[in-house]
Amino acid sequence: MKVALGQFAVEIESEKNLLTCLDLMQKSQQAGADLLVLPEGICSRNIADPELVLKAAQAIDGPFITRLAEATVHNALTVVFCMHVPVPDKHNKVWNVQVVLAGGKVAAAYKKLHLYDAFATRESDYVEPGSDVPPLLTIAGFKVGLMTCYDLRFPELARRLCSDGAEVLLCPSAWLKGPLKEHHWHVLNTARALENTAYVVSAGECGPRNIGMSMVVDPLGVVVAQAAENPALLFCELDKARVEHARRVLPVLQNRRFIRPELQTKKTA
Q1: Which superkingdom does the taxonomy of this entry point to (predicted)?
Q2: The pTM is what?
């Protein structure tokens, strides 16, 4: 499977972001990519106005997703990204939804489970957490699991997805800058890949707020492609034989002694 990672800085105007996405989709399709992974929160961003996540949120069938979906009608490109979607009957809450588009339709929509309430940031002020483990998808013959940004810090989700059969983990992100944050990003991506013998494909937003550093890590923890801090379109080939080799020489999924992780539906004290 040929994957593309589209890294860019999300702007305030959603129309500009839409045109950027459409351009990245066209270039990915022309390069023969099967899959394009874009960052988290791609509809609109303003670091001076955190409430923009509420004001700019759109429904799954709204104009932003609809126009991106239309661009996948006559080609084989699957596109993955995150954006904020209003929660019905809660004017002050949105979901952070990872959307998968293929064949002109929404193939999957995963509501982010782990909200970024850390390092003096509170995503939960505006975002409602999801309540379901994301589904596995089949893309170009690979079993694919979905994660979003802060999910990387929780090994249970990656292990659950790979226990269910995932060979590739996709992680659209907007990883905030800060002390040691680039180090955290590198360690967590490589750890999730190595401990599950799976590819991890993480597309990050760049710009004044976030680190960029989109990367692909192979099933033995090797970073096989990586962007820097500027806008980029990165390509990488994923090889199913590499997954099979890793799981043969390092059978951690077979050797584990713990049961399959289950989602906790209620917080404990």
Answers
A1: Bacteria
A2: 0.96
Residue 265 domain-assigned (yes or no): no
Active site includes 262? no
Q: Is residue 267 part of a domain?
A: no
* Catalytic residue (one of 21, 43, 93, 112): 112
112: annotated active-site residue: yes
Q: Which of 197, 130, 132 is nearest to 169 (CA)?
A: 197
Q: Going by C-beta distance under 8 Å and a sequence separation of 6 or more, which residues neighbour residue 114? A: 129, 148, 150, 151, 153, 154, 157
Instruction: Select which of 21, 43, 149, 236 is catalytic.
Output: 149
- pLDDT by residue (tens digit) across 207-246? 999 999 999 999 999 999 999 999 999 999 999 999 999 9
Asked if residue 261 belongs to a domain, the reply is no
Q: What is the CATH number of the domain that holds 51?
A: 3.60.110.10
Low-confidence stretches of the chain (pLDDT < 50) are 268-269
Residue range(s) defining the domain that contains residue 186: 2-255
Q: How many CA atoms lie within 13 A of 101 on its CB side?
A: 27
Residue 264 domain-assigned (yes or no)? no
DSSP annotation string for 119-175: TTEEGGGTEEPP-SPPPPEEETTEEEEE--GGGGG-HHHHHHHHHTT-SEEE--B--
Q: Report how many domains make up the chain.
A: 1
* pLDDT score for 231: 98
Which among 40, 123, 128, 205 is annotated as catalytic?
Answer: 40
